[in-house]
Amino acid sequence: MNDQAPILTADHLYCGYGKTPVLKNISFEAQNGEIISIIGPNGSGKTTLLKTLCGVLKPRQGNIFIKGEEIGKLSRSRISRTVARVSQTIDMPPMTVSAYVLMGRLPYFKRYQFFERKADVDKVKETLGLLGIGHLAEKSMDAISGGQQQLAAIARALVQEPDLLLLDEPTSHLDITHQAVILNQIRRLNRKFNLSVIMVLHDLNLASEYAHRLILLNGKAGEVFCTGSPEHVITKEYIETVYKTPVLVDQHPRSGKPFILLDG
Ligand SMILES: Nc1ncnc2c1ncn2[C@@H]1O[C@H](COP(=O)(O)OP(=O)(O)OP(=O)(O)O)[C@@H](O)[C@H]1O
């Protein structure tokens, strides 16, 4: 892998499930240290794109490069040490939160290593603490709330120590306190460790506030409608065209970022 290359390059991707592709001709580069949010109406293909970007779903055409290397030529563990994904639906194995989060360390296990090392356990503890769920460590995954499961899934991705984090609606089950915990933590990791992030967000105001760049999918056409800074993408004209809903666009009083309200 080449550290100077963009962390991820999507090159003319056509992706989907059946005969007709859900998404057509998607090309973009995610630079190192960039936070990108994929936005768009329900069913526009946000999850499909995220799954394709990490190699879970094979593109029907086009290619993906991670740090300049074709994803198909990389081993699963090499990909896992570089890219971590948190999906929208979280599997709930009957295990404790700490055992679940520890699974994120598997890509670092050596051949014939069957047990975690102290460094792995420390990493898990530290990450649970950072996300405010240290007290849940010994609880079973199926005995905690949906929001807490979401935090545990994010912790599992973070202990993978990825260079690129892919998040599918990371705040969907979270109250505003935990939305702030997650997104501020992601911003902190981005600033401190240059973590690159691509996240699907439904909340356009959170996308506007936390992402450097937005990719707005056009539901019907299966294409990118436009991409750019929040100021470029979150305009009355673009949002009303894509979402077919009247909106008001103002500025956040503190950050100055575009701020959106439904208009009737
Ligand atoms: N496993 C699947 N098999 C077949 N079609 C699928 C599958 N998953 C999704 N689709 C279809 O692909 C299209 C895009 O779905 P996708 O979940 O990527 O959209 P989305 O933008 O993430 O939606 P939402 O905002 O509702 O989560 C939809 O028409 C959906 O029905």
TrEMBL record:
InterPro entries: AAA+_ATPase, ABC_transporter-like_ATP-bd, ABC_transporter-like_CS, P-loop_NTPase. It comes from the Bacteria. Keywords: ATP-binding, Nucleotide-binding, Translocase, Transport. One of its GO terms (molecular function) is ATP hydrolysis activity. It holds the Pfam family ABC_tran. Residues 8-246 form the ABC transporter domain. The keyword Membrane does not apply. Part of the ABC transporter complex HmuTUV involved in hemin import. Responsible for energy coupling to the transport system. PANTHER family: HEMIN IMPORT ATP-BINDING PROTEIN HMUV. This is Iron complex transport system ATP-binding protein. It comes from Desulfocicer vacuolatum DSM 3385.
